[in-house]
């Protein structure tokens, strides 16, 4: 894919951060870990990766705004553009030695994501997209699944950890969905869940109470691969509310009827 200058900058930032994270991942047992909240961990690796990405992106585009998981939001001199970054999506996997986590970078222009990168360093899979230009994984063009039957389809979600108020809703979703499909996966990275829908590995995905940096890049990648992505509540604000449902077009209506109960 011949990407724009902005996309190439994002890819470079993701690769540099990925190398740093991979080094820390190999020594995960030695990381100093603190707790931000129940079941929500943050590590030195998180902060180091974000600093690397910020240096690359803000250094290259100093006028753009900045929104990331581990630092305060900054307004840019250019109010129309903003980086939305999750330096390590799948932190709990990372800290448990599970090789399923990613760097997620989205570029927002006038309230819409126009460029996206989700990079999985452990598999060296670089998912990218630009608005109107399609989605790619490394050198391969991405297309969502063509399955049309729910019973043949696999779906992904996030199961809230202990104490989260949305746990009952998710368990009820699973109880309704499980009898209708080929399986449900919970792999612990929203960015990769959306990228996997784009790649046809999952047929659909839904989750509640995510942050903008969790899904900004993945939403564009899924859409550019032909996926439908909507707020779980049809009248909601996708990035603002963080409630998302996504699937290939042939399966979307069937899937959403099971998940959406209002």
Could you describe the 3D structure shown?
The protein contains eight helices and 15 strands. By secondary structure, the protein is an alpha+beta fold. It has an eight-stranded mixed β-sheet, sandwiched between helices. A five-stranded mixed β-sheet has the order 12-11-13-15-14, sandwiched between helices. Helix 5 packs parallel to helix 6. It is globular. The protein starts with a helix and ends with a helix.
List the helices and strands and how they pair.
Layout: H1 5-26, E1 33-37, E2 40-43, H2 44-60, E3 65-68, E4 71-74, E5 81-89, H3 91-95, E6 102-109, E7 112-120, E8 125-130, E9 135-137, E10 140-141, E11 154-157, H4 167-177, E12 183-185, H5 190-198, E13 204-207, H6 212-224, E14 227-231, H7 238-241, E15 244-248, H8 249-259
Parallel strand pairs: 3-5, 11-12, 11-13
Antiparallel strand pairs: 1-2, 3-4, 5-6, 6-7, 7-8, 8-9, 9-10, 13-15, 14-15
Helix pairs in contact: 1-2, 5-6
Structure described in brief:
The chain has about 260 residues and is of the alpha+beta class.
């Amino acid at each position: 894919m011949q990407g724009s200058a902005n996309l190439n900058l994002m890819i470079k930032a993701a690769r540099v951060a990925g190398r740093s994270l991979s080094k820390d991942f190999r020594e995960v047992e030695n990381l100093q870990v603190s707790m931000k909240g129940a079941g929500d961990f943050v590590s030195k690796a998180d902060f180091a990766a974000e600093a690397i990405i910020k240096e690359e992106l803000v250094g290259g585009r100093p006028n753009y705004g900045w929104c990331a998981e581990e630092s305060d939001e900054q307004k840019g001199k250019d109010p129309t553009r903003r980086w939305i970054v999750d330096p390590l999506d799948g932190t709990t996997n990372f800290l448990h030695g599970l090789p399923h986590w990613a760097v997620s970078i989205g570029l927002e222009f006038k309230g819409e994501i126009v460029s996206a990168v989700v990079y999985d360093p452990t598999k060296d899979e670089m998912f990218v997209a630009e608005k109107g230009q399609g989605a790619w994984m490394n050198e391969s063009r991405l297309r969502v699944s063509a399955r049309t039957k729910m019973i043949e389809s696999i779906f992904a979600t996030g199961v809230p950890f202990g104490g989260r108020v949305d746990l009952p809703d998710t368990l009820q979703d699973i109880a309704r969905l499980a009898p209708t499909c080929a399986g449900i996966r919970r792999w612990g990275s929203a960015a990769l869940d959306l990228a996997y829908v784009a790649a046809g590995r999952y047929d659909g995905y839904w989750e509640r109470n995510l942050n903008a940096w969790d899904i900004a890049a993945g939403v564009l990648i899924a859409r550019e691969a032909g996926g439908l992505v909507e707020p779980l509540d049809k009248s909601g604000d996708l990035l603002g509310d963080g409630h998302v449902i996504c699937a290939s077009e042939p399966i979307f209506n069937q899937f959403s009827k099971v998940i959406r109960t209002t």
